[in-house]
Amino acid sequence: MNPMRVATVGCVAIALLGLAEMAGAQARSFRDLQGLRHNGDRVTITDPAGIVTNGRLITFSNQSLRLMVQSAGPIEVSESSVAKIELMASRARKGALVGLIAGSAVGALAVALTPPCSRFCVGPKKGVAILPVAGIVGGIGAGLGALIGAKFNHRLIYLGPIARPTRP
User: Fold this and answer.
1) SS3 assignment for the chain
2) Looking at residue 81, what is its pLDDT?
3) Domain with CATH 2.30.30.520 in the chain
4) Would you identify the CATH topology of the domain 37-89+153-159?
5) Which pLDDT does position 122 carry in this prediction?
6) pLDDT tens digit string along 73-93?
């Protein structure tokens, strides 16, 4: 079995698991949002006319939510006046963590699965090389994970009945 192939497959599997976890769920009512969102989350709210409002969630109930808008202060928005809500969140931290774990595992596996040296060995032994290699490859994975995680900035968390497409 090729050690690099095993390491590559492991890295891809861990990255896919991390991306799948980032996908998340979409609420169909404000009641569904109560379990999914927390006060202080940055959101973008679009009304049925297409007007966009950015702010932070203060509180929300089954029929309305209170939003802190930087230019206007706190505003109350009813569920009937919302077409969609998007969560504005950078997943860079989570992506970096997933990349660090995946990269470290790949680096450690690459060193551990390297065949033993029988003659004319140059360089450090496996036990000495495993930690630095895992750290270097883990750092590369963290950087790539942060870049990938930062790409997912807006995530649709609520789609009102007005914005839902109707099927003929």
Assistant:
1) CCHHHHHHHHHHHHHHHHHHHHHCCCECCHHHHHHHCCCCCEEEEECCCCCEEEEEEEEECCCEEEEEECCCEEEEEEHHHCCEEEEECCCHHHHHHHHHHHHHHHHHHHHHCCCCCCCCCCCCCHHHHHHHHHHHHHHHHHHHHHHHHHHCCEEEEEECCCCCCCCC
2) 87
3) 37-89+153-159
4) SH3 type barrels. (2.30.30)
5) 80
6) 889 888 888 888 888 877 888
